[in-house]
Specification:
The chain has 69 residues and is mainly alpha-helical. The protein contains two helices and no strands. The protein has one domain. The radius of gyration is 24 Å and the shape is elongated. It starts with 7 loop residues before the first helix and ends with a helix.
């Protein structure tokens, strides 16, 4: 059986790269999920007979209500 020497610093560096890669993938998945929810809301709005301009106006009015103006 052959024994391998592992440099602890190199192992730590590889683990850090793996962690950063997982974080980037998670951020990408979150961004895709947010975009999908937005697209689904837009399609629902249009399917109910709304127009893109109505959607923007309703969104702006909702923000103003939320901010108390």
């Amino acid at each position: 059986m052959t024994a391998f020497r592992v440099d602890p610093e190199q192992l730590e560096e590889l683990a850090g790269e793996s962690w950063r890669r997982r974080e980037r993938l998670a951020e990408g998945r979150e961004a895709l999920a947010k975009a999908a929810r937005g697209a689904a809301g837009e399609m629902d709005w249009l399917a109910r007979g709304g127009t893109p301009d109505d959607r923007s106006r309703a969104r702006a009015e909702g923000m103003l209500r939320q901010w108390g103006r």
